[in-house]
Amino acid sequence: MEFRELAVPGAWVITPRQLRDERGVFTESFKATEFEKATGRGFDLCQVNVSVSAAGVLRGIHYTEDPPGQAKYVTCMRGAFLDVVVDLRPGSPTYGRWDSVVLDDVDRRSMFLAEGLGHAILSLEDESTVTYLCSLEYTPEFDRDIDAFDPTLAIDWPTVGRDGKPLIYTRSPKDTVAPLFCPASPQI
Length: 188
Description:
The protein is mainly β. The protein has one domain (2-176): Sandwich (Jelly Rolls). The protein has two helices and 13 strands. The chain has helices at 32-39, 173-176, and strands at residues 2-5, 11-15, 19-21, 24-26, 47-53, 58-64, 72-78, 80-87, 98-104, 110-113, 117-123, 128-134, 143-145. The strands form three sheets. It has a six-stranded antiparallel sheet with strand order 1-2-10-7-12-5, with helices on one face. A five-stranded antiparallel sheet has the order 9-8-11-6-13, with no helix packed on it. A two-stranded antiparallel ribbon has the order 3-4. The longest helix is centred in the first third of the chain and has 8 residues, at 32-39. The protein is globular, with a radius of gyration of 16 Å. The N and C termini lie far apart (33 Å).
């Protein structure tokens, strides 16, 4: 496994070694000892989520109040997503900065996001499937959102899918009315 920290500290992209033969492909997508060695921290699994999305579905920016915070280990099982992380930790030198990685069923990368980081995914093809390993069970009273199209963040969202066709963004009603990011008064 190869670990690379993103421009937002606490966010890592993990590229597994793929073993291919006539039967198919095998990867280790998570290994606790390798994870701890690379990131300097453990990961306690409390909940696993699976999401299947059509091309253009944009989920997020979501985060959990910190504390308690929720860390996530995200893997694309099928299709492709643009996975975006936003630093929402007040006092962080990278507060308000974002970075992104394409997660797909070719490179089979994963993304780890520490507590206090915001997260959004944009599906780049129909039936794209992602799994989230979560360090905290879903707790609605700590769940928060920020508008993914906030001009202050200026996230560079793709306009075409994996097949080169234009994307039509689809968001949940909750995400459509999410508040703007306000760097002068942290929302966490």
